[in-house]
Design brief:
This protein has 442 residues and is an alpha/beta fold. The protein contains twelve helices and 23 strands. The longest helix has 19 residues.
């Protein structure tokens, strides 16, 4: 049965033969093919994540996911759909480049000529592997090993249509680059991989959008984002996830390596999907490194969102600041687990972590688990979480000023998310998310 917005194409089962076909289709060198096959062997060998890492997975049950019922989309699938994300990608005046992936293949790309002349590389990962082999080989999966767990291994074996961004030393990209990933095959899988290398003293911003078609059959997404900020570089990364209601995102990770005096700013937005489990991490490896981590999630219906964050301070004089806010209504559930880890010798660390949740319905639920691992003694670390329900007195006050209950509730939710919106580095993204939050309230 077809659903509007989906494609009916042949697909391949998840198997070693499909891994080999994927490598051949992308024209990969031998070393890349060997890495894929090693990842597939790890997938077959590793236990389920709930067995290997029970504490991390005990609040999210993925036992109903039947990998045997899923398939890799045919490479001749449909083109990418801008859909809701049109405002983020349509206006050429507000972006420096554009890359589009659909059903595991790259279907469009653009980069301003002056940036290409300056040495900026913004292309699909398979193309980069052929044209910039040494750079890709050095950094691909350097931050996210397929050996970590089964879903990461499956990603390592079957990733396709990845995004590669390289910025040479001292080059500043003034406008954000935009990449979009679309899954239109019912029962399909997508393994998006993003690799960003910002060389010394460079500056760049990347916005990624993720969406899938509504369909009756369950689909799977499992992505990896590797952000490498070399000394003095500044990287701003935002991911806007609006998977369709039948899509599960399981085992995804966004991981940044921040070197001396570098800055990485990440914004993670989870609005779609039936079940979502992601990790967001910043590893501060050089003195003066800093990371700002923003997050926004809004669950409705029966959605389940599970976010784990890590602020890892491995060098002295490093700073991290995390603010994640979420709202749930109906029967939705949200889980946040955040860890600040300070290594021995990482003196003069400044680390801040805050998670705030708003419960809008009696049947909704949130779990918030902030944690510290401190192995240094000259530092400042603060963490905290809070969960609250709508205050009926506040609603009554607003309604006494002529607002309906729906309008009053929306004003409270908008105010709740305001400090996240205010810290977003992209004006276009700020307006888009404000509109989407309003839609989730209907």
């Amino acid at each position: 049965m077809s659903t509007e917005g989906t494609t009916q194409v042949a697909a391949a089962a998840l198997s070693r033969a499909t891994v080999e076909q994927q490598s051949a289709r992308l024209g990969e060198p031998a070393w890349a093919r060997e890495r894929r096959l090693a990842a597939w062997e790890a997938f077959e060998r590793l236990p389920a994540p709930a067995v290997a890492r029970p504490e991390e997975w005990r609040r999210t049950d993925v036992g109903a996911l039947d990998l045997g019922a899923l398939a890799v989309p045919d490479p001749q699938g449909s083109p990418a759909r801008q859909g809701r994300h049109g405002p983020l990608v349509r206006d050429e005046a507000t972006r420096a480049g554009w890359l589009a992936h659909a059903d595991g293949r790259t279907v469009g790309r653009a980069l301003r000529a002056e940036l290409a002349r300056a040495g900026v590389v913004f292309t699909d990962l398979a193309c980069a592997m052929r044209e910039h082999e040494a750079l890709v080989r050095e950094h691909l999966f350097a931050l996210a090993s397929p050996e970590e767990h089964r879903f990461r291994a499956l990603h390592g074996a079957l990733w396709s249509a990845g995004t590669f961004l390289y910025v040479p030393p001292g080059v500043e990209v003034a406008l954000p680059l935009v990449a979009q990933t679309w899954l239109g095959t019912p029962g399909g899988v997508v393994f998006p991989h993003t690799l960003v290398v910002a060389d010394q003293g460079s500056r760049v911003a990347l916005i990624e959008t993720f969406a899938s078609a509504p369909a009756e059959r369950r689909a799977l997404a499992s992505g990896v984002v590797e952000l490498i900020a070399r000394p003095g570089a500044q990287v701003r990364y935002a991911a806007v996830q609006e998977w369709g209601p039948s899509t599960w995102e399981v085992g995804s990770v966004v991981r940044a390596r921040v070197e001396r005096d570098a800055l990485v700013h990440t914004t993670m937005v989870a609005l779609g999907g039936d079940l979502v489990k992601v990790d967001v991490e910043a590893h501060l490896g050089g003195p003066g490194a800093s990371a700002e981590m923003l997050g926004l999630y809004f669950g409705t219906g029966g959605q389940h969102v599970d976010v784990h964050t890590l602020q890892e301070h491995a060098a002295p004089h490093t700073t991290s600041d995390l603010l994640y806010k979420g709202a749930v209504r109906d029967a939705a559930r949200a889980v946040f687990a955040g860890l600040i880890r300070v290594h021995p010798g990482a003196q003069k660390t400044n680390a801040f972590q805050a998670n705030r949740n708003l419960v809008l319905s009696a049947g909704a639920r949130t779990d918030s688990i902030p944690k510290l691992e401190i192995m240094a003694n000259d530092l400042r670390c603060t963490h905290g979480s809070a969960t609250s329900r709508l205050n009926e007195e506040h609603i009554f006050y607003l309604m006494s000023r002529g607002l309906t209950r729906r309008q009053a509730t929306f004003m409270i939710v908008e105010g709740f998310f305001a400090d996240v919106f205010d810290r977003l580095p992209f004006e276009t993204l700020r307006g888009y998310l404000q509109a989407r939050v309003a839609e989730k309230m209907i």
